[in-house]
């Protein structure tokens, strides 16, 4: 069942009913100011940090769902409605929401009156623009009243939800003309404020939520709107809002436009005031002057569209499969950028009140983003590395505003250090910029402990090399990629955190998954060492990698698949010897990606076992059989009902690992089959089952054991975005950045046909024309580069050259 459709020409998803299974959202913003907006205008805004600088209030776990937002109430006679349907839920004659790249459009019609709302965050300014157009399509004049509504958050989103004894006495506003300034706590330690304004004189205002809504009422039926007249209330403590009333006369066929702005401003700490308790408004005035007219707004919107067109043009494929084209060219790259910006900090599932930027998460996200804006990837790598500890281990997350590591989730996740190597290797391959290795980077955010980035990489590898267990496999610590496989936790207390309880370093629980990472990224580290003349470090790393490769063959193979781990008593996890949880997806993917077991014939056995034991019509499950009781030695993974989350759910994040592994052994049919099962575009027609947005990936899908098999959760902010783009762009379509240039080695399904691909790389544009006359799954016979025959599959890089035309001959 579909609730909308793709509009590929406009790069939009068109939602045709407000009654989607869940709120279907979009992200506005690309730098510092961000808004989450749903298909019914719900959502929230923040500046840089969704916890510490939350601008508008949102209510999670609320009934009705998806409240609050930025709402526009239209009172036309006795009828009150909203362009996005919520919160009044008045049935509309026409409804449409178009989520685009960095913007959303809403169109509503009721009783001959049409409303068009365009919402976006401009590229270079800390504000959200809402342009509302009202048009009288009837044959009679209309006198309507328009009421805006925004509820301010008292900055710290956690404190805002909990510290009522203080917060209900702090709210402060200033009202100047059509502008409402939210200045709560500005009188003390803050030097920032927000404002909400409209580019026309107003007929009234309200800044007190209680006054606007009325006693016992919700935002679905505000008393002010019902009465048709603002109360001109001034908030003092309690709950500050911003609402303006505009009375509008519309002749038949007439339309009028209004520009509303929600902005964020900062002043120097020593220059905060215009007068006693009067905030300095110059920063706000500059923003208002910049977007005062519809023409200025239209120009800013055109700049935003150009920004996204330029970004997405850096990778573009044309094949006969519209789903591949749509995902590769638009939605997968778009989600990669959103996920890069947000990490796991702000979505409708990650509330933005706890988790910050993940160390592992951000490193993985970079894999799908580095080709878009390499300079921002460089900055992110340095930010991440600066939170690393001196011994090479890491905080698991850090706050985006302060860029300081925090221990809300803890540390001691022993896969974290190796992901830094993965991120830096991806950056070096993309850019050839080895100067990043010489950048002085703090340890634990203390510059007096700074060392070159290369030293951070060396310590990352050394931490992994020196933290091995009795089987010579890496110690797992608190967990590895699977945060819920807690082999050192042993928690019996309800409510206790599985990720912070128990010793982070022991005793001897080991991870075969980290062993696969160790081989793959240890090889990358050795290669980086060689390229910067660190031959001794390269030799140490290479020897360690070879030893780990053998350790996996000796102690990590279970006969038909790779083991998952050894627990704290050295008992096997993910073995046919286990009662439950006999086979896990992660090592089957990552060990083969690392090349382990390929020449020995083990890779094919492992992948065949995955298909036989883990595959479903909705994707590959994390493990089987599901855990039916709580296992003290395994931790959180066994705390979920069977089929949900880490307990045998379908984690979309590591399905691409299996697909990539299939390309390693040349099985394009199987690789593409796996890709299609979780790809949003292919499964749009089961939206009533899947429930989350059909244009972006979700973190997980309920597995075969679950009551709601096929239902997705945790959309948008997931490593699935980056890994799926790596899978599609580099493994399946085959264009891979390397230290020496671009290589191409497609692994595609039979019948995929010829395709073309454009890729910007190190200041040049590469035009690939892939020919597959014999319909093979994998195999490049030779290349023609600008008409010259080249053996193999690497395009030689020539200094100063800005354009390459490459014909790829597969056979």
From TrEMBL:
Q: Which residues form the Glycosyl hydrolase 94 supersandwich domain?
A: 11-291
Coiled-coil region list: none
Record keywords, A-Z: Glycosyltransferase, Transferase
Q: Does the keyword Transport apply?
A: no
Q: Which domain of life is it from?
A: Bacteria
Q: Which SUPFAM superfamilies match?
A: Galactose mutarotase-like, Six-hairpin glycosidases
Which is one GO molecular function term here? transferase activity
- The protein here is known as Glycosyl transferase
* Pfam families to which the protein is assigned, alphabetical: GH94_b-supersand, Glyco_hydro_94
Q: Provide the Glycosyl hydrolase 94 catalytic domain boundaries.
A: 307-734
